[in-house]
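User: I'm putting together notes for a lab meeting next week and I want to include a structural view of one of the chains we've been expressing. I don't have a solved structure, so I'd like a prediction I can at least talk through. The sequence is below, exactly as it appears in our construct file.
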Amino acid sequence: MRLLLPYFIIIICLIQLYIKKSERNQQEKLEKFWEKERRANGVRKKDLSGLDYISIPDECTDLESYPTLLSLTDNNFSCKRAYETICNLKEKKIVNLTGISNTDLKLNYGVANLPVLTEYDDNFTELVRSLQTLGHCLLEANDTQTAQIFLEFAVSIGSDIKQTYSDLALIFSKHGEKNKLDKLITYASTLNSINKDLIIQDLKQLQ
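Assistant: Thanks for the context. Below is the predicted structure for the 207-residue chain, given as structure tokens.
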């Protein structure tokens, strides 16, 4: 027992050192965060004309071109609501700000622009969710051609909804389009999202 005591004391000391180091690192991170936040809150309003605004193509709202979708909007409340949401968003400003913190938005565009930037990003979230809903409903209705239109548009604007990639990958697999599946994985790897690794992992299982 006496032989073990020195080792036990050493272990306790090492644990205490680790805890103190961890607390010190946390304190440093916290101080850096508040310093960055202080600077961000002092940035004046900047011009937003250079943002990468998203335009909804007419083909995403042209019901007459998609008989299956027309039927779904008549009989499925979720599909109808998703379609109406996309139509309403067509005249609004939409920007994908996924993965960018409020602090960074204030630093880049000014604190006064935060509310409107939040609105633009909320519009983006509504859009990709609605595109996913329509794409999935169309896929379940076996209209893979129309489903692909909505899902590919969602991916092209940077959606990070895992199901969107899974549904699109399923369509590619059904059609034997391995090259498109490979490109989808490459595209997913560019996402600025915490969902990126999960999306890539899911897609690789379908390769």
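A couple of points you could mention at the meeting. DSSP finds nine helices and no strands in the chain. The first helix runs from residue 4 to 40.

User: Perfect, that's what I needed.
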